[in-house]
Design goal:
Structural class: alpha+beta
Distance between the termini: 34 Å
Number of domains: 1
Bound molecules: zinc ion
Number of helices: 2
Order of helices and strands: EHEEEEH
Strand content: 25-35%
Radius of gyration: 13 Å
Helix content: 10-25%
Largest sheet: 5 strands, mixed
Shape: elongated
Number of strands: 5
Length: 79
């Protein structure tokens, strides 16, 4: 991962590269043409590519975060 925070469409090259692991957020494989983002989450190893609908953009940090992870962080702040 190059560390840049971005959103892109799954093409054949990315599909081959990321589908050995699949999506770390939901465990499903990616599909050609799907919108995906590089996001941080509860998994190990820093930012990873996940489905766009499983991530939210965190204005505070300026990067995408996995939904579940983001909700946990927000709850912690509010309490
Ligand atoms: Zn997913």
């Amino acid at each position: 991962m190059d560390g840049s925070n971005k959103k892109f469409i799954m093409d054949l090259e990315h599909l081959n590269r990321f589908n050995s692991e699949g999506c770390p957020a939901c465990g499903q494989k990616f599909t050609l043409g799907e919108p995906v983002v590089v996001a941080c989450g509860a998994w190990e190893g820093g930012a990873k590519v996940i489905h766009e609908n499983e991530a939210v953009f965190d204005q505070r940090t300026g990067q995408f975060v996995e939904r579940k992870c983001h909700a946990a962080q927000t709850n912690r702040v509010l309490r």
